[in-house]
Design a protein that fits this description.
alpha/beta; 20 helices; about 600 residues; ABC transporter transmembrane region fold; 6-stranded mixed β-sheet; about 60% helix; single chain; Rossmann fold
Length: about 600
Amino acid sequence: MKTYLRILSYAKGLGWYIPQYTFAVIMYSVFSVFNIALMMPMFRVLFNQTDAASAPTSIPDFSLNITYFSEVFDFYFYQIMEANGKMGVLMFVGATLVVAAFLSNIFRYITLVLLAIIRTRVIELLRIDVFDKVISQDTGFFTTARKGDIMSRITNDVQQIEHTITDSLKVILSEPVQLIAFFVALFVISPTLTLFTLILIPLSGGLIASLAKRLKKSASLSQGSLGSISSHVEEAIGGIRLIKAFTAKKYITKKFNEEASNYKRLNISMAKKFDLASPMSEFIGILVVAGLLLLGGSMVLREEPTLDASAFMTFILLFARVLQPAKVISSSLTSIQRGIASADRIFAITDNVPLIKEKENAVTLGEFKKGIEFVNVSFKYENELVLKNISFNLQKGKTIALVGMSGGGKSTIADLVPRFYDPSSGKVTIDGVDLKDCTLDSLRKYMGIVTQESILFNDTILSNIAFGMENPSEEKVIRAAKIANAHDFIMETPKGYQTVIGEDGAKLSGGQRQRLSIARAVMKNPDILILDEATSALDSHSERLVQEAITNLMSNRTSLVIAHRLSTIQHADEILVIEKGEIVERGNHNELMQKGGRYKSLQDMQNIK
């Protein structure tokens, strides 16, 4: 119930639609009952059960009850029969039936439109909230979460909740109102038969509720399996070159087939429970109808009937309509359980509290003046210690380079500067202020980051360079592209700066993608530049162009550079050699070469003189 109420909490601001929906449902139910109730006078005419002597001689005084409307109808009914005969009264009943059916369906249409407005609005708010919570998570969240599973929760699980909203409004408002209207009419016709049905119908409801409860676990497992399938697809598409290069089609297909088979098995199990609800409720309904035929038939066929045939036939028609909302409620209850299982998966994300968050009274940083300092910083992923007592001072306008073998902790140091992670101990400061005391926006506005893997979007070149900016100046974009040595190749593309580059910039070469990343950093005009092996994956020609662009970008900026090719950082103000999370050497290029230590060994390994 708690999960369901959380879903409904997204309907805030839609309260005005609920009274409208309820009114439309009531009117639809009233006219639906009236449609069938009109059968009784028609049956009386056909069975010669009309009695003009009992007809009302005048319209009764107004009273808001069923008897008043019944007597008004009878007055006009017998007036028309007296004036036009039985065919005339049949035409009157038929015309009234058409009008009632028209009004009933008008109100039914209104309920469907209002339901669509409520449903789509709630889903819009839920999907926006889920997406906002996902992108608000810290980077550590995405090292363990599977992208495909996250995508499945935002799409498939939210879609399942859409059906839950529809079904729940039916269970809460629409179908109960119809049931009440029909049972009131049934009770007016025959209290005895109505009480008989009220004894048996709760039995059906209890069985369906028990079935729905068992369905929730199966639904949760099924949605989880669907998330795994999405992850497999996402990984396979992203690694298609690797799959083909290593002839791993059979291997990757086998993994996918196993998950697809698991999803099939879970869905069959769920279908057995879900699809049992409707046949079960229908069978119980038939049992009740059979009992009604026996009981009602005996009441009609007695020597002194307690129920006339026309009333009994009308009762059966009304009860047949009762079965429909009862079946809808039973199937909706099972569907709601599936939606609640999906909601639990979604709320598992939205309830996850990011480890990186601002303090209540965080400081908004002003102009960058002094520099960045690491003070005895240690960091660990879970229980693995990655950095051990790192201390250094990157002064404004200076460049510090981090070098060393892969896995030493260089990228982790760089990730601490924009506060993608927080130190496990020690602190990182900017202009003397602990990063934990700063607002994230004011801190990251200083930062320009260029990584080894260019992160580009399936958008135009201009939008990628001006990423995150509203109404960017095309002149500034072109100037940034020229600084990044990207303007010439951009102009060679089919639409220049309006060329769409494909997912992850798939239509561009590695060097071109990297130069766009640099142009994006230039466009931001950051005070602090973080370069994470920005040239390591490029060929010599592309490396030269990119290195020129980086040199232009680094001019008069504070830079933290992670270097794989040591030739690119020989002019750094200070070089830190990082191994196993510790600074094992530090100094400028000449000092470290004279020491003949670890840095020189790395130089020799790359055959750099």
